[in-house]
Structure formats: structure tokens, C-alpha cells
Amino acid sequence: MHFSLILLHLAGATMLLLFAVHMVRTGMERAHGDTLRTMLGEARRGQIKAAAGGTAMAVMLQSSTAVAMLACGFAASGVLALPTGLALLLGADLGSAVVVRILSFDLGWLVPVCLFAGGVMHLKLSSERLRETGRMILGVGFVLLSLQLIGTATGPLRSGAMLPSMSAYLADDYITAFLVGAFFTWVVHSSVAAVLMVTAFAAQGLVPLEAGVPLVLGCNLGGGLIAFWLSRGMPAVAQRIPVGNLIFRAMGALLALVALETSGFSIDMLGSGPGTALVNFHLLFNVGLVAASLPFISAMAIVTRHLVPDTQAEATGAPLSHRVSALDRSVIATPRLALASATRELLRMGELLETMVRPVMDLLRAGSRSEIARVRALDEALNQAHTDIKLYLAEVNRGQMTVEEARRSIELTDLAINLEHAGDVIAKNLLVLAEERADKNWRFSDEGWKELADLHERLIENMHLALNVLISQDQLSARQLVVEKQRMRDLHRHTHGQHLKRLQSGTPESIETSGMHLEIARGLKEINSLLVTVAYPILTASGDLLESRLAKAI
Fold first, then answer.
1. For residue 318, what pLDDT is reported?
2. Where is the PhoU domain (predicted)?
3. Which residues contact 301 (CB under 8 A, 6 or more apart)?
4. C-alpha distances in angstroms, 245 versus 54, 68, 126?
């Protein structure tokens, strides 16, 4: 087979692997997001539980990076302590190694099963949770299929001269191999995919163990680089978690690399073949990393606080408001540019609101007063952004504007008002309920909590869609957002009816938290309705939105 054709097949198989890993993660987040948030809440109860929770979450998401981003979001909201977050990510590193071990078994027979079952579930079933579970199963099938394709594509390379010579060079220069593994993992943004590819090459005889070991250790370092890179724009309290994890990974990988290269120890005894030996080595390395690092969690927390100090605004208690405003006063005389500036500031306002919304369920379940207060403090930044946008647009309106620009200015002002109102619903309603629950030590019924978690999950997804509509002004996305409003209404109606049934049956928890359950559901629904308003001007202009839901009078 021609070399360029081999590379084309290999590139296609690699992209299928990356896409498949993304499919599994997306399906898990959409189908079982409430389970993930519950696990994250449980993980806050100690470092050992945090490490175990991180392992389980990474296995479910097939990504330690996804766990890192969840942890950063909760840390930014003030509901996840730094030592707990560090332990969580150490467990997530181990979880991603467990995923590699599972996917490395000979599961070729499972490919058609996953493709058929996942396809039927995703395309034919009406339940969204079952459809997204089908997406996960399809993703697993595509992962296994991509590994088969990689093996087939690289088969002819064994008889060539170039790859063996490159492998021999990497085997002699383990520092270069280590850096290549780290860089490749950062480029593909998936340590699971990177390690699977290295082990697949080793199983095909294309990479010797002498090169495979530093490549796998480099992949572990690269996995830490991904979360470090993605969190670089977050508040300092969130950045410290991936920074600490990166230091743990770097130190562990370098120490293991030096120890193996200087001792001459061979890992071929860890498996029946080079690929299996590398997979088992990767798993054992991460087990050792967790065991060796957990005792130093507190020390690493101190180190990262020095490496990533609070900004002046954070130190004085101005959460997230230290960000430079996007409102550019130099373009006020140019309405088109000024409206674009206001839109960017509205996007920042939406991100602030998401930071408040995301930890709400954790706070309602087991939040302390200090954690609740940190989230409530974000409402001040939201109110300030709302005021700044209104005054900025009022000044823009004093100039010469076209009819279209004037209409857009009113739309942006209305959206700022709605986002500020949504923040008030959280600060003055939901967080007050969280304090009341903490004071009285009430517990929700398992069924009731599941229903509220579903509402919250739907709200988070709709919030992302609403912010996309704000920027893109896409008509199809706007229609989807309005459709989601009806689904949210149906979920609210369902939980209301089920709650009344539990009251009738005498469920103690439901009786205890009756008023609270209904208020939380109503609050989540109200926030969703406020977000959906971003779609109304787009659909009104296109004629897709009716002026009234009433039937015409006869």
C-alpha cells in the first residue's frame, strides 16, 4: 500500500477514535449528568472519597479532562475546596487509566453489538435519556472499531524502513520520546486516545517497549497539560487545581522515567505482549501516583496558592468582577461596534449567571452557609454588569441609529434585565431555600431529588444553547430553544404531579420538604423562561413566533 494512502487510513482511524471518545463523554453528560453532580457532591466529604469519586467519574466520562473542568467550575463557585479538588483529579487520572485497560481487552466481538444496540437506542427511542445512553454505546463501538482500523492501517508499516528507524531513534533518546508523547496528547486533547494509539502501535510491533515507556509517561504529562491549558482563563481558585495536578503528574512521570531508564528494569513481564505490558504499566503508574501523592495534598495546596495567587479583585472579595469589561466606550459613536461590544458583555453576564446556577443543586443538598454566601456574592457582579450595560446602551441610543440598530439595542437591554432577574431568583429564592434546608437539616426523597436534578440539568443545557443563540442569532437554534421551553414546562408539570402523589402516599421526606420542592422547581423553570427570551426577537422577525397562544375567536 502506498505510504500516503496508509497515512490517510491512519488519520481517518485516529479522528474516529477522538470522535468516539467525545461521543461517550457527551452521552454520559446528557444522560446521567445528575449522577455525575451527585458523585461530585459526595466527593467533597474527604480526600479518599474524592479520589474514589474522581476515578468513577473519569470511567463514566472516559476523560480525566472532563472531570477537571467540572472541578474547576465548582471551585470557581466556591463550593469545592482546593485539597479536595486535587484529590479528585488524582482519582480521575487513575480512572482514565482504567478506561484504557478496559478498552484494550480483545473486544472485537462487541463492535457490532454496540453499533446495533446503540444505533437503535439513539435513533428509534423517544426517551432522551435512552437516546443519549445509545450515543454512549455507539461511542464505545466506534472506539473499538477505530482501534481495529488503526491496527489494519499500520500493518503495512512494519515492512517499511522509515517507522522502524524512527522507533529505534525514540528508543535510544527517551527524553525526546517523553516530550513527543506529551506534545501528541496535548494536540489530540485526549490522554485516553493518545495512550490507546501508543499501545496499539506497540501491539503491532511498530513501537518497541524502550520507546513505548517514555511515550506513555509523556502521555500522562500531556493529560495534565490539557486541563492546565483549558483553565487558563478561569479565576485563580479554579486554576490551582489543574496546576497542582500537572505538578503531581510531571514529578511522577519524570521520576518514573529516570528510575526505569537508570535501573534497566524491563516492563515486558507486565503482559503477554508489548501492547498489554504498556497498558498495565500505565495503570500501575497511575495507581502509584495516587498512593504517593495523596499524603502531600495539603502541601501541594500551599504550593499552588503561591504559584497562582489571587488577583487584587479576588483578594478584596470581588468575585469574577475583576474581569475587564467588554464595554468599549471608544466606539459609542459607532452603534454597530457598540452593540457588538454590549453583546460580548452580555455573554460575560451569562457566564456569571451559569457560575451561580451550576452549584445550586449541591448547595441545596448539602451546602454550608459559607459556600452559599460565596455564590450569593456573585449576584453583586451580575447586578453591576446589568447596570453597566443599560447605561452604556442608553448612551449609544442618544446618537444616530438605524431602525435595526435601535431594535437590537432594545433587545440587548431587555436580555440584560432578564439575566439580572434570573440572578435574583437564585440569590433571593433558591439560596434562601438552601440556607433553610441546612438550618433544619431536611432531606429530600430520592424520587423528588431525582426530578429536581433533571430540571437543573435541563436548565444548564438550555443556558448553553441560549448563550449560543445570543452570539450566532441562528434561527434553527432559536427554534430549538423555544422547543426546550415546552420540555422544561412538561418536566415541571411532571414533578409537580409526582410530588403530590408522594404527599398522598405519606412519604415523610416529601411532607417535610413539600413547599421547598415546589419552590425550587418553580424557580428553575422561571430562570429557564427568562433565558428563552433571547430567541423571541429572532423568531418574531422570521414569522415563526405566534403573537398569542389563544385560539382565534369564532
1. 46
2. 346-426
3. 82, 83, 86, 240, 244
4. 13, 9, 41
